[in-house]
Each structure stands twice: as C-alpha cells, then as structure tokens.
Amino acid sequence: MNRSIARLGTTIFEHMSGLARETGAINLGQGFPDAQGPPELIESAARALRERSNQYPPMRGLPELRAAVAGYYAAHQGLALADDEIVVTSGATEALAACILALLDPGDEVILVQPLYDAYAPLVERAGAVARFVSLAPPDWRLPLDAVRAAITPRTRMLLLNTPHNPTGSMISEAELAELAELCTAHDLLLVCDEVWEAMVFDGSRHVSPLAIPGLRERSVKIGSAGKIFSLTGWKVGWVCAAPPLAGVIARAHQFLTFTTPPALQWAVAGGLALPAEWHEAHRRVHAEGRAHLARGLEQAGFAVLPSAATWFQHIDLAASGIGLADTGFCERAVREAGVATIPFSAFYAQAPETRFVRLCFTKPLAVLDEALERLAAFRQRLIAEGEAPPRS
Ligand code: PMP
Ligand code: GLN
Hints:
By secondary structure, the chain is of the alpha/beta class.
C-alpha cells in the first residue's frame, strides 16, 4: 500500500457531511448549494445525453467547450486564449493533479499558502515534490510577499496560489500579482493559480487572473471549474488554461488520469458559459442574498464575522464571539449539539494552524439559514453560560 495515501484520513468535508447526514444536522460545512442547479444547463445536459455522442470525446475536451471557455474569459476577464491553450479536465481537482504531476520533478520545491485547500499538499507529496508553506494572517489575509520571497530556494519550481481564496474569501490584487510577476521572472518560477471561485466575487470586487499580467502570461496556469461558476459541484467539469508548451505537457498528464470528461456535461457547460453577462450577474445576485442574510444573522446572534469578499463562505472568530473553544471542538460540538455542520479553519493547515475561525457556507435557502442561525445563536448562549468564554485580559 502506498504509505503517503494510507496516512491520509477522510477530508474534513466528507467527515462533516457524514456527521450531518447521520445526525440530520443542517449542513453549512462542505461548500455546495441546496438548489438543483440552473435549469438551462440541466435541460441541455439531458438533451445532449439523448441526442449527442456518448462515446469518448477528444482528450483535450470538446472543441465547442474549449471555444466557450475562451469566449467566457474574453468577455468576463479580458483574456485572449487560443484553443491549444485550454484543456478540459474532470473538475479542478483533476486539473490540479495534472499540473502538479506534469510540471514538477521529485525534489522540486513548491510554495503553498496556508490556509490551503486540502488537496494541494497531498498531491505535491505524491509527485515527490517538497512543499514550503507560507501563511496568510488574519483578519485581512493578504499575501505575505516578503515571506514568499524568503521561501524561495534554488530548488523552487512553482508557486501554487488560490484566488479568490478558500477558505478566507480574500483575493490577490493586481498590484500584488505585478510584484509576483517580478519574483517569478527573477527566479524562473511557474505560477499555478486555482481560480475556481472567480465568478463568486461580491461587493463590486474584481477578480484578476495572473494570465492578465504581462510577465505572468507565459509562465502561469489558470484553473477553472464549472462546479463553482454554475453551482453544479457534482458535475466535475473543469479546465486549465496556459501557454501552449505548458498546456501540452499538462494534457499529457491528464490523458493518463481521467483522459476525458463526460461529453453531455461538456456540451451543457459550453452552452452555459455562452449565456449573457446578465445571466451570470443574476446567478451571482442569488448567492449575494444568502451571503448578506447569513452575515447579518450571525452578527445579530452575537458572532464576530470576518470580512469575506468572495466564495460561498462567511467566517466567525470564536474568541471575538466570546466563545472559549478552539475551532475543532466548536465544530464537533455544533454538529451534534446544535444540529449545524461547519468547517474548522485548522483543517486548512499543514502546520501551525489558526484555531479561532470557523467557516460557514451560505448557499442555502433563506429559511434553512434562519433555522441554522437560530440554532447557532442558542448554542453560543449555552457555551457562554457554561463558562466557555475566554478569560478576561
Ligand atoms: N480548489 C478550490 C479552492 C476549491 O474550493 C475546490 C472545491 N470547492 C476545488 C479546487 C475543487 O473543485 P472541483 O470540484 O471542480 O474539483
Ligand atoms: N471545495 C469544497 C469546499 O471547500 C469541498 C470539496 C470536497 O469535498 N472535496 O467545501
């Protein structure tokens, strides 16, 4: 048995969703909407299943989907992508695996930024590469450029970033990307950027991809996912975009991972990406409503809520909310005692975790959020009454 795989436990998302199913708790843990998904895309997938080929599509993805990805990024992010710069994958997870396997040799070093999505470090380790961690600091979670610079060694090959960022909801600015361009050029680094949350940005924030930055265009890989753009997390249709030499080698890794992605879903995603900007705006507004509702309700219940510009998540600061438990203790008790599943921030760390913060997903009907809020408010009161409040300084 492979030792590094055997050592892995179940992900925090599986763990919390499993507990939610077992106990009947409201699940604000794993990020997924309760809604079925946009009817336009579901209808179009059903039609494609009936009317189009159900056999292997081309390894790099249907030409129509690759053209639609290019069209979407031209319209929404001002990027110019050619077809040999796009490879369709089975979700962003496979895209990450393909990039890491294709671009790293054993012994290469990769800079990872904590808190980090759970797949990054195990995939780097499986490739025989070495992760070097830098950490974002609360409450604004800005990228620590000096720490990134200090983590670079002669073996560093790649910087793996995530913007908009899960779990914090922070975003890397255009000015920060310009500084990274200098750093990556000076040290000949590749930049792989997980941009799955690019469409879920709120309050007028604007997502900027490294591919839009001159010094980064040729040395960056952009990863996207229809799961987040269309609220269809189970479809697992994703893609990578990169200059042809990078896209070519990533495609070679992809051909021995999943090789292709179900064609009916590719057709439906192609149609979805071509929907007008107003459709995408309206889709985002539905999420913005849940976001505002959860943030307001948490504040009214006495929780300290952190700023979060993007993603499907809002966060609470336990200590600042008067709660003396660490995140894992809070989440384990909340799912069982309050009937609400949430995610502890510490699960997003490989070392030196922050343990004060809890992530809550807002993509639920408002009535479900209201019920969860009522339960969490009562739970907070109970914890405080139990004397779980931190000692006064
Ligand atoms: N990267 C990040 C930052 C994510 O949050 C997620 C899922 N939420 C993924 C990758 C995985 O995306 P997919 O489901 O398309 O594999
Ligand atoms: N990306 C999802 C989240 O952050 C979880 C995906 C998974 O369960 N692997 O909630």
